[in-house]
């Protein structure tokens, strides 16, 4: 009997972890998910990836020690459906949007806004810094304007095809939507796009998740909001 050795080491409400889980489910790849504590990676994770990076993806003897490496590997090793794009032009656009959300949004919005409103309670037990929150919300609106423009011009973010660009953006946005800081009324095209994403079976599992001590906004779990 073959033992499944395809493991995603992830953390709750980590958008990069969500991205890989979302992509794996889109490709209908069987895997087990092991929740890690960010400040104390398990021995099992450290054995596979000494850096203890979260997320990490292990596919038998292949270790993907970063989320971006995992995206590229998953799309090459399991080519159907293609999520990185069929042509060089398509792939360049997918990677451009991936970088915008995995790097820019993650640094400018998630690591400040979600940290101040949720993670800070867990790690520091301190009150949120209102100045930091104000700056993060300004950055959030800038990225949401970008997302709204893409959603207005295209069926999906990188073009006519569903891709890692949609997966990445939705994974980041969903964490921030949980705490209720997205002004969907001024980003209507992004809202329509996000409702389509929320309706995908591979995404719905995230809508049932909760962050300890921080309740979700009323519309977080609604497909039509």
UniProtKB/TrEMBL annotation:
SUPFAM superfamilies, per the entry:
GST C-terminal domain-like, Thioredoxin-like
**Pfam families named in the record:** GST_C_3, GST_N_3
Q: What is this protein called?
A: Glutathione S-transferase
| Subunit structure comment from the entry | Homodimer.
Give every GST N-terminal domain span. Answer: 4-82
InterPro entries recorded: Glutathione-S-Trfase_C-like, Glutathione-S-Trfase_C_sf, Glutathione_S-Trfase, Glutathione_S-Trfase_N, GST_C, Thioredoxin-like_sf
Span of domain GST C-terminal: 87-216
What is the species of this protein?
Answer: Candidatus Hydrogenosomobacter endosymbioticus
């Amino acid at each position: 009997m073959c033992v499944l050795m395809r493991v995603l080491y992830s953390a709750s409400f980590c958008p990069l972890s969500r991205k890989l889980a979302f992509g794996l489910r889109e490709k209908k790849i069987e895997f087990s998910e092991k929740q890690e504590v960010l400040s104390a990676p398990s021995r099992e994770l450290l054995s596979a990836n000494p850096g203890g990076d979260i997320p990490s993806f292990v596919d038998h003897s292949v270790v993907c020690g970063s989320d971006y490496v995992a995206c590229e590997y998953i799309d090459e090793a399991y080519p159907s459906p293609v999520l990185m794009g069929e042509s060089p032009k398509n792939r360049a656009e997918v990677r451009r949007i991936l970088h915008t959300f995995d790097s820019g949004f993650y640094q400018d919005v998630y690591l400040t806004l979600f940290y101040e409103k949720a993670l800070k309670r867990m790690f520091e037990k301190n009150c949120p810094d209102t100045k930091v929150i104000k700056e993060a919300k300004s950055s959030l609106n800038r990225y949401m304007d970008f997302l709204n423009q893409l959603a207005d011009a295209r069926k999906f973010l990188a073009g006519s095809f569903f891709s890692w660009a949609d997966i990445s953006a939705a994974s980041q946005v969903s964490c921030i939507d949980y705490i209720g800081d997205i002004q969907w009324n001024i980003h209507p095209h992004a809202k329509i796009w996000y409702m389509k994403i929320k309706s995908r079976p591979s995404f719905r599992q995230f809508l049932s998740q909760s962050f300890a001590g921080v309740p979700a906004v009323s519309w977080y779990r609604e497909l039509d909001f």
